[in-house]
Design a protein that fits this description.
This protein has about 700 residues and is an alpha/beta fold. The chain has 29 helices and 14 strands. Helix 5 packs parallel to helix 7 (about 110-125), helix 10 (about 160-175) runs antiparallel to helix 11 (about 180-190) and helix 14 runs antiparallel to helix 15 (about 245-260).
């Protein structure tokens, strides 16, 4: 090749590299195609052409070009790394590892090959090997900040956040304005439980790279976790503006706006969410679904799209762990596990404590509890520790948490968390137990291949709804939620609670997010027709209370007729139900804990059965409390009954007296009976598994 030809080739390669960096793939492909006619034997040129073709989605041609480049330049590290990256994108990490090891055999210790190999090992969940590979690469290139970050990611996956932090700090010394380093610092701080500092790190990454939507999104998540909801909503909005097709940013923004009672653009956000679900967009978070007016089929589709990503991501880890199902002796008790983030001072913690104590007296089951949040030091946690074996797994990364569960030979594992902040999905997707059950977790289908059953009843999940659930259904003849007696403190005075001295008190102690504009409109109609009444609401975050009072004023209701209950210990919330004449439920997402609280204290609750699991829980509680008259036929009947009884307080007193008399006979309040049925469920499905029978729908 002449000197001028070589200069022309070098200039073309330089221009191609710049075009590819700028994202001008089409221009790069056209330039490379023309240049290949002049320089058909240039491996570098053919390689860059292949990259351009791949970026344009012309996969077959792109791969063909890369393989041709490998023939022309068999010792080219760049070609081998490109082909390895294609294998990783295809979900074939082992093929990438094999190719990179071959490249290392030709050029031992090459830091670029080692770095890409480390990434491939991370994808294959071979984290210890990845750590060693990145360490070796760092010896060859000690001033490379990217390698420090790679090593930090490996340490983080292995559960050593302290070492990960040290490597990130070293990377920041080398490159203090590297946005990726600040982003990874956010991940590490989050793993250490430093949410506020993590948010600061993500915001710094966003300042350094303001066009990167991931940084605004992750900052929003940390702001949300630390209770800065208004700031979180703003950050989610920034992320969505940068990435309009992000299902995660869209759904979290919609949920955050509902939590703040900020109904701006609510209809538009709901319409965008509907389109996103229908088109199979990824990232839509499950906990927004019950709040939106989506039918069961749409909820199932959204859940299956969401869990498919988790399933694919964790497949290599699951294959590596390869948990074998436990082999139990025929006469051994079924080994049962319950995993939850609320095994403490929480209504679910109280429910589990009562259940665990009852199961201990029945025998036939060996119960183990797995807590994914720290010990709060309360009395409930102490009761749980006395009633069952309790494992604290809150500090463990998902693979280690799954190993801890599997090590206990758990045969049936109930998930009591779902997909909230402390979701167990990354643990359960690893299949630590052969049978896994959705109960008191996501209020609807889990849509997950790792969930075998859902525990429900005939009201929340009637036979006509069966087709909208991916799990097999365990249907109780009683309510799927047990209500156990709780100690109730003496009621404070109305004045102490900010309530007027007289007049009916309606209450809705559901979370603010469940109060849709339509539900709030019904509440305002009730207040208009019962003029001397007030509405007692749970205090919301941020400016939620002020927003609700403003909407009330626009509806012709004096703002002071809305009274807000501050955050209080659960026992104090229960005590205040004595001052309530009638609790009002919401749609499409109704009460669960709030409904149980009302009925456990003898306070009447009015609901209207919705079309989804989340909208039918209160109806189930009332039906099994023998109070079907408190389930309205439709929203109009709901308003009419509330108005009728608000004008007839003796009628409400009669209902309260009737409710008190039912506590001795209604199955809803029979904690011992529930425990016996629960035990039968566990023994039945556990025995079926032991004898090799697959999960099926079962009625109990």
């Amino acid at each position: 090749m002449t000197v001028s030809a070589r200069a022309e080739l070098e200039a073309t390669l330089h221009r191609l590299a710049n075009l590819l960096r700028q994202g001008a793939s089409r221009d790069a492909e056209e330039l490379a195609a023309r240049a290949r006619r002049s320089f058909p034997l240039s491996g570098d040129l053919v390689r860059l052409h292949g990259i351009a073709l791949l970026q344009l989605g012309r996969r077959h041609e792109g791969l063909s070009a890369l393989h041709r480049a490998a023939e022309l330049a068999p010792d080219s590290i760049e070609v081998q790394c490109n082909l390895a990256n294609v294998a990783l994108e295809d979900g074939r990490p082992e093929a990438a590892i094999e190719r990179l090891n071959a490249a290392l055999a030709r050029q031992p210790g090459h830091p670029v090959v080692l770095q890409v190999l480390g990434v491939a090992l991370m994808v294959a969940a071979r984290h210890e090997e990845a750590r060693e590979t990145f360490t070796q690469a760092l010896r060859a290139a000690p001033q490379h900040p990217g390698l420090r970050l790679n090593l930090a990611e490996a340490e983080l996956e292995l559960g050593d956040a302290a070492r990960a932090l040290a490597h990130v700090q070293e990377a920041l010394k080398l490159a203090p304005r590297l946005d990726a380093a600040h982003a990874l610092l956010g991940h590490v701080l989050q793993a250490q439980g430093h949410g506020a500092e993590a948010a600061h790190a993500w915001l710094q990454a966003e300042r350094l790279a303001p066009r990167e939507p991931r940084y605004a999104f992750q900052a929003a998540r940390m702001l949300e976790e630390t209770g800065q909801l208004a700031e979180a909503a703003e950050a989610y909005a920034r992320a969505l503006q940068l990435a309009p097709h992000s299902g995660a940013a869209l759904s979290r923004l919609a949920c955050m706006r509902r939590r703040l009672a900020d109904w701006r653009e609510q209809e538009a956000l709901t319409a965008r969410l509907r389109d996103a679900v229908e088109t199979g967009q990824h990232g839509i978070v499950p906990f927004v679904l019950p709040l939106e007016p989506f039918d069961r089929a749409m909820q199932r589709k959204a859940m299956e799209t969401f869990t498919r990503t988790i399933e694919q991501h964790l497949a290599p880890v699951r294959q590596k762990l390869a948990f074998a199902p436990p082999r139990a002796a025929p006469d051994a008790p079924i080994r049962l596990g319950l995993i939850s983030d609320r095994l403490g001072e929480h209504p679910i913690g109280h429910t589990v404590a009562v259940l665990a104590e009852a199961l201990a007296t029945l025998g036939g089951i060996e119960l183990q509890l797995f807590a994914t949040t720290p010990d709060d030091g309360g009395s409930i946690r102490q009761r749980l520790q006395r009633a069952a074996t309790l494992h604290a797994i809150d500090a463990l990364p998902p693979p280690q948490a799954a190993e801890r569960i599997h090590a206990q030979d758990i045969e049936v594992l109930f998930d009591l968390t779902g997909y909230g902040v402390h979701t167990n999905a990354d643990i359960l997707a690893l299949r630590p137990a052969p049978l896994q059950v959705n109960w008191l977790a996501h209020p609807g289908t889990a849509g997950a291949p790792w969930i075998d059953y859902i525990l429900a009843d005939t009201i929340v999940l009637p036979p006509s709804h069966r087709g909208d659930y991916s799990e097999k259904v365990l249907r109780l003849h009683r309510c799927f939620v047990p209500i156990a007696a709780a100690a109730i403190a003496p009621a404070p005075t109305r004045a102490a609670c900010g309530l007027p001295a007289s007049g009916p008190v309606f209450a809705c102690f559901n979370a603010t997010a469940t109060i849709s504009p339509a539900s709030f409109g019904r509440f305002m109609q009730i207040l208009r027709e019962v003029p001397d009444s007030v509405l007692w609401l749970r205090s919301g975050p941020g400016l939620a209370n002020e927003r609700l009072r403003a909407v009330a004023s626009e509806s012709g209701i004096a703002p002071e007729r809305l009274v807000f209950l501050p955050t209080l210990p659960h026992a104090d919330v229960l005590a205040r139900h004595a001052l309530v004449d009638l609790c009002l439920d919401t749609l499409p997402c109704g009460a669960r804990t709030a409904a149980a609280d009302a009925l456990s204290t003898g306070c009447p609750l009015l609901t209207c059965a919705g079309d989804t699991f989340a909208g039918r829980i209160a109806a189930s509680l009332l039906q099994h409390a023998h109070l079907p008259e408190l389930v309205a036929d439709d929203p109009d009947a709901f308003v009419a009954l509330a108005v009728q009884w608000g004008r007839d307080r003796p009628a409400l007193a009669t209902i309260r007296t009737h409710l008190a008399s039912l506590r001795a006979q209604a199955p809803l309040f029979d904690a011992a009976g529930f425990a016996a049925d629960f035990r039968r469920v566990v023994q039945t499905i556990g025995t079926r598994h032991r004898i090799g029978r697959p999960p099926i729908d079962l009625d109990f």
